[in-house]
UniProtKB/TrEMBL annotation:
Residue stretches making up the Acyltransferase domain: 10-324
Keyword Phosphoprotein: no
Molecular function via GO: acyltransferase activity, transferring groups other than amino-acyl groups
Entry keywords, A to Z: Acyltransferase, Membrane, Transferase, Transmembrane, Transmembrane helix
Name by which UniProt lists this protein: Surface polysaccharide O-acyltransferase-like enzyme
Species assigned in the record: Longicatena caecimuris
UniProt key word Membrane: yes
A Pfam family per the record: Acyl_transf_3
């Protein structure tokens, strides 16, 4: 067995953390929490902090993918497997809800059969498109010198992040944003980071994230006096803000620099994270999970909200991870065998 093919557990831990951050975001976003902008409470700030985790989680997830994909050849089998996984998750969930009594019209059935073109999961669609283009992206990266690649990254950062941050207008698509993250991760993989500042990447990334959260609190405080400021509380914590971008990059580099031995348990859990996303972010499971199962909004002003949120988030991850693991060992394995025979 080639050791170079073995998954590194430092990145797999980061993959798990990324998905937990995404679940935090969805817990805050879809539970129905409503707090008046005229007052600030510990609970309102906590929910706000949770909501920003998803931005960081998505960036980290794509950076991890770009880091590994730049060294891999595009495989039609993997693209077909990814398409089938996403479609099967959607179809199975639809069938379960149909059996439970949910009515589906013709368009909804078609959408669940073809979830990628109908953008049922925006992240899954963008990720699939990124993988389809990965072979061409890799050829572009290999054709550029280090200097040219740095110039391309700088240009894209200006277009995709700096200008949107200071002009408050998004100029690119989600796929373009993924492309930027992909080539940044590729740059980190292909060329050594010699500047001593990268030795402290984890600390710098953490400080950057604290800054993002702190800016939200500051805008909230000002918003109690000048209402319009509360509308911009997420300004520096948006997925494409320059602060969130650099925070994501430094945290990613920080985890890359960690010396964590290969762990089968960690890597097995990490392999379930995409399934965790497809399950808990499904448009039928989403309201059922946060509003029917957990009744999250009812705890908006509860003194134990923080503990309740942590419990709900961890329980969601654990259950979805178990289901995803079961899928990987059964249907996923069957798909792999089928595609291998069809080769």
């Amino acid at each position: 067995m080639k050791k170079t093919m073995e998954r590194l557990s430092n990145f797999e831990i980061l993959r798990i953390i990324s998905m937990l951050l995404i679940i935090c975001h969805h817990f805050a976003l879809y539970s129905g929490f409503r707090y008046p902008s005229s007052t600030i409470t510990m609970n309102s700030v906590f929910i706000q902090f949770l909501s920003y985790g998803g931005q960081l989680g998505v960036n980290l997830f794509v950076l991890i993918s770009g880091y590994f994909l730049v060294k891999n050849e595009f495989k039609v089998k993997k693209a077909v497997k990814l398409w089938m996984d996403i479609s099967i998750y959607a179809i199975i969930i639809m069938l379960i809800f149909a059996i439970a009594g949910t009515d589906f019209n013709f368009f909804e059935v078609v959408k669940n059969i073809f979830p990628i073109p109908y953008n049922m999961w925006w992240f899954a669609t963008s990720y699939f498109m990124m993988y389809l283009l990965s072979g061409y992206i890799n050829k572009l990266i290999c054709a550029l010198s280090k200097r040219e690649l740095d110039h391309l990254i700088l240009l894209l950062i200006v277009i995709c992040s700096i200008l949107p941050t200071f002009m408050a207008a998004r100029m690119t698509s989600t796929l373009m944003w993924f492309f930027l993250l992909y080539i940044i991760a590729a740059r980190i993989r292909l060329y050594a980071l010699t500047n001593k500042v990268f030795d402290h990447s984890l600390m710098i990334g953490a400080i950057g994230y604290v800054f993002c959260l702190g800016s939200c609190v500051l805008f909230d405080i000002i918003g109690t006096k000048i209402a319009i400021f509360s509308d911009y509380a997420t300004y520096f914590a948006r997925i494409d803000s320059i602060t969130m971008l650099f925070c994501s990059i430094f945290l990613f580099i920080g985890f890359k620099n960690l010396n964590i031995k290969h762990s089968k348990v960690i890597n097995t859990i990490a392999a379930t994270t995409f399934g965790v996303y497809l399950l808990h972010e499904n448009e039928y499971i989403r309201p059922f999970l946060w509003k029917t199962v957990f009744h999250s909004a009812e705890h908006a002003n509860d003194n134990r909200l923080i503990l309740y949120a942590i419990g709900a988030i961890l329980a969601t991850f654990a259950l979805c991870s178990f289901i995803s693991y079961t899928y990987n060992k059964t249907i996923g394995r069957w798909i792999n065998a089928l595609l291998t025979k069809a080769k």
